[in-house]
UniProtKB/TrEMBL annotation:
Domain of life: Eukaryota
PANTHER family: BENZIL REDUCTASE, DEHYDROGENASE ARBD, PUTATIVE-RELATED
PROSITE patterns membership: ADH_SHORT
Residue ranges with Basic and acidic residues bias: 45-55
GO BP: any one term: secondary metabolite biosynthetic process
Keywords, ordered alphabetically: NADP, Oxidoreductase
Entry's Gene Ontology molecular function annotations: mannitol 2-dehydrogenase (NADP+) activity; oxidoreductase activity, acting on NAD(P)H, oxygen as acceptor
Protein name: Dehydrogenase with different specificitie
Length: 377
């Protein structure tokens, strides 16, 4: 609010000075005179501006951060706090994700048939837990067969059985159950990715759609972030997305059939979260978003659509655990969300189904933000 006024006044002073310089330079040959008017008026304008800034606590705070006169309040809610460190837990400390109840099933509400995923085979990376698991459930409920690919194969197998069980409960009397399989892959490793894709094709006969949800975040300030952990983070979030997308696209191109890919980015690819520092994660998710756009263009001629979903703060079993241990962090996060609450994994069920389905046939390269309005403010 104040900065543009200062800038306007400074511009005015400069314009005035340079106008008189041009005028005198063209109408009079006395070059020294022409510049005298600048040097005699500019210092006064500068002093006036400096005085104004010095005497206005808001301007001082705005221009002299971090030691502004507004003390503690200054920038407080808009900065990262380097004392906040959250490590991604080891596997044995990971909470299990429940299968969502009552979101699929037979229903008789009219809706567009275009939203159906019947006769599709979808591969979901990171589908054993969290957002990947709930999105997997949405795809099964919408008629797709499913291959869950995860580092944790045992949990993926368990969840695959539970998804079919839940589907059976919600669709009593239906004879044909969805084919849901579980596979191992470390998404950051090209050989492992290729082996997983080959295994899925051998089990399902083909792959039509892909959702890349394997990913994780950690919090360290940039200076002390252990380098090996940054490489792991970029490996899983960026390489993992790239390797699966190219592997599945190659398979689709060989079959000469259309396909749809949804990459799970994050609102962190568009904004900088506070107060927890996480520069490498933010950069990784910006990469995912732009990878979706770039591949959308590259593969448009092959009828392969590539879109990104950027979730905001979602309440998975893992974020719930982290926030239960850091209630102050939870309150800060919620205070920054226009919707006034965190999202739930179920909030992604419609978004992922839509983007994979024919209802989104002309949508490619889009970034669908599911963030309660976080990135708008
Ligand atoms: N939870 C949120 O609030 C949130 C918000 C925005 C974006 N995201 C993104 O959504 C995606 C899913 O996050 P989540 O909250 O469900 O996490 P999660 O930890 O609950 O689930 C991630 C899954 O990915 C698997 N995985 C991790 N590394 C892997 C690897 N190298 N190879 C194969 N599988 C691997 C894990 O075993 C797990 O099953 C991530 O990309 C995350 O960055 C999450």
């Amino acid at each position: 609010m104040f900065r543009p006024t200062v800038a306007r006044q400074a511009c005015k002073a400069l314009n005035h000075a340079s106008r008189s310089a041009v005028l005198t330079a063209t109408s009079r040959p006395a070059v020294t005179n022409s510049f005298r008017s600048i040097s005699s008026t500019a210092p006064r304008a500068k002093n006036d501006e400096e005085d104004k800034i010095k005497n206005d606590p808001f301007l001082t705070a705005t221009t002299k951060a971090p030691e502004g006169t507004l003390g503690e309040t200054e920038g407080r809610f808009a900065r990262t706090d380097e004392s906040l460190q959250i490590e991604y837990p080891d596997d044995e400390h990971m909470p299990r994700s429940p299968v969502v109840q009552g979101r699929g099933g037979m229903h008789f509400k009219r809706t567009l048939a275009q939203f159906s995923l019947e006769n599709k085979v979808t591969l979901v990376t990171g589908g054993a837990r969290g957002l990947g698991l709930v999105m997997s459930q949405a795809l099964v409920a919408s008629g797709s067969d499913l291959a869950i690919v995860d580092l944790n194969k045992e949990e993926a197998e368990e969840q695959a059985l539970k998804l079919v069980e839940q589907f059976r409960k919600e669709n009593p009397g239906l004879e044909q159950m969805p084919n849901v399989t579980a596979h191992y892959a470390d998404v950051a490793n090209p050989d492992s990715v290729n082996a997983a894709i080959a295994e899925v094709i051998s089990k399902h006969g083909r792959i039509d759609s892909l959702v890349t949800s394997a990913g994780f975040t950690e919090n360290f300030d940039a200076i002390s972030y252990p380098h090996d952990r940054i490489q792991k983070l970029w490996g899983v979030n960026v390489d993992g997305t790239y390797l699966f997308a190219t592997g599945v696209a190659k398979h689709l191109m060989e079959r000469k059939v259309p396909g749809s890919i949804v990459m799970i980015g994050s609102m962190s690819g568009a904004i900088v979260n506070v107060p927890q520092p996480q520069a490498p994660y933010n950069a990784a998710k910006a990469a995912v978003r732009h990878l979706a756009a770039s591949l959308a263009v590259e593969w448009a001629g092959h009828d392969i659509r590539v879109n990104c979903i950027s979730p905001g703060y979602m309440l998975t079993a893992l974020t719930r655990k982290i926030l239960d241990e850091n209630p102050e962090l939870r309150d800060k996060w919620i205070s920054l969300i226009p919707a006034g609450k965190m999202g739930t994994p179920e909030d992604l069920m419609g978004a992922v189904t839509f983007l994979l389905s024919d209802a989104a046939k002309y949508i490619t390269g889009a970034d669908l933000r599911v963030d309660g309005g976080y990135t708008l403010t």
